[in-house]
Amino acid sequence: MRIILHICCAPCSTYTIRCLREEGHELRGFFYNPNIHPFSEYLRRRASLEEYARWLGLEMIWGPEDHLQSFLRQVAFHEEDRCRICYRMRLQPAAETALAQGYSAFSTTLLISPYQKHSLLREVGADIAEETGVEFYYRDLRSGWRSSREEARRLDLYLQSYCGCLYSEKERIQEKMRKKGCLPTSTPSAKS
Predict the structure, then answer these.
(1) pLDDT in tens, 131-159
(2) 7 phi-psi bin (left φ>0, alpha ψ -120 to 50, beta other)
């Protein structure tokens, strides 16, 4: 099968690409991640993937870089549904690219992460597949998570510590501060 593979970062692509190639799929990478904040983080992730894709001989498609405003506009006042919005923002262009370039399917490296919402990814992917007529190739790759991290370290790829969005970065920092005792477990209500 010819698959456009949405890639969130180089570390998540290591095991995913190896696994899909071993299954006999022809892959073309697609990097479009409007959620990544700050821009310096986006640039680090892209540079790491550029280097890894070159090393692998993986042909890539690079999405536009000025996208954060669009992500924030779509998520503002819908924070509780931010993952659905984010998944759609990234997978829709991957499916449209697959359709335009004659690929039979689209998929994503997000499927390797135990931190992503797999049922939601599958649902969003299926909706987009129905809309575009391009198959969403779902494969639960979470069993390769640890292997992907080990390979990324071995190859000296940039390893990030959050999904990329402003909200997950805030949650990661808050959790770290709570564990250190720097933040209360709940926020007291303000007095009138």
Answers:
(1) 999 999 999 999 999 999 999 999 999 88
(2) beta
Q: Where are the domains of the chain?
A: 2-179
Question: Using CA atoms, how far apart are residues 35 and 70, in angstroms rounded to an integer?
Answer: 9
Question: Chain-centre distance of CA 165, in angstroms?
Answer: 10
Q: What CATH number is given for 2-179 in this structure?
A: 3.40.50.620
d(CA 34, CA 77): 17
Place of tokens 């931190």: 115
Give the pLDDT mean for 78-92: 85
Q: Please, which pLDDT band fits residue 176 given cuts at 50, 70 and 90?
A: low
Q: What is the pLDDT of residue 77?
A: 77
> Within 10 Å of residue 66's Cβ, how many Cβ atoms?
8
